[in-house]
Design brief:
mainly alpha, Diphtheria Toxin Repressor, domain 2, 2 strands
Length: 180
């Protein structure tokens, strides 16, 4: 009969072989499998949250693009099955790290929203020079409405909070100077 290898658990070898007869199989632990699955699901959800026009520059395979396109219309079990398919397709990509890094960046809409949020904060904390700077960048914006909303938003009551939200909506509707 053979003997049990000393360093690899329950692997038996013939007596005429040494312990290095077979290389041990390196397997992924259950935790590592779950973490990899969670990572793929996170990437899939980031891709799904983007508009198709924002996904176009990512140069994704056509099969993955089709699965992403049909996902919103699915419900229930079909949606879960499609998510598993998406995760499998993502696992097959060679440059998943590059894709993940690209997805961590902001989209055009997010950058514009953050810029408008900075403008709102600047207008609320600043004075008329800040309003003039905003008007220089957005000449078609309604100056009097913005000024009124800024004054109302500076109040620290519930009406000020509503005015602050309304101010953001007015700033959002103002087109930049070059897009008119």
């Amino acid at each position: 009969m053979g003997r049990k290898r000393s360093n690899t658990g329950f692997q038996w070898v013939r007596e005429d072989q040494d312990d290095s007869a077979r290389e041990p199989v390196i397997r992924q632990t259950h935790r590592e499998t779950r973490e990899a699955d969670a990572r793929m699901e996170k990437i899939a959800n980031q891709l799904l949250s983007r508009a198709p026009s924002d996904r176009a520059p990512l140069d994704l395979p056509s099969v993955l693009t089709e699965a992403l396109t049909e996902h919103p219309r699915l419900t229930g079990t079909a949606r879960n099955r499609n998510m598993r398919r998406l995760k499998g397709l993502l696992r097959g990509l060679d440059d998943i790290d590059v894709l993940e890094e690209t997805l961590s960046g902001e989209t055009v809409a997010e950058r514009r929203a953050h810029a408008l949020e900075r403008w709102r904060t600047r207008l609320l904390n600043g004075d008329d020079t800040d309003l003039q700077a905003f008007m220089d960048q957005h000449p078609s914006a309604d100056r009097s409405a913005i000024r009124t909303l800024v004054r109302a938003a500076r109040k620290s009551d519930e009406k000020g909070s509503k005015a602050s939200k309304k101010l953001f909506q007015v700033l959002k509707s103002a087109p930049p100077a070059g897009s008119e």
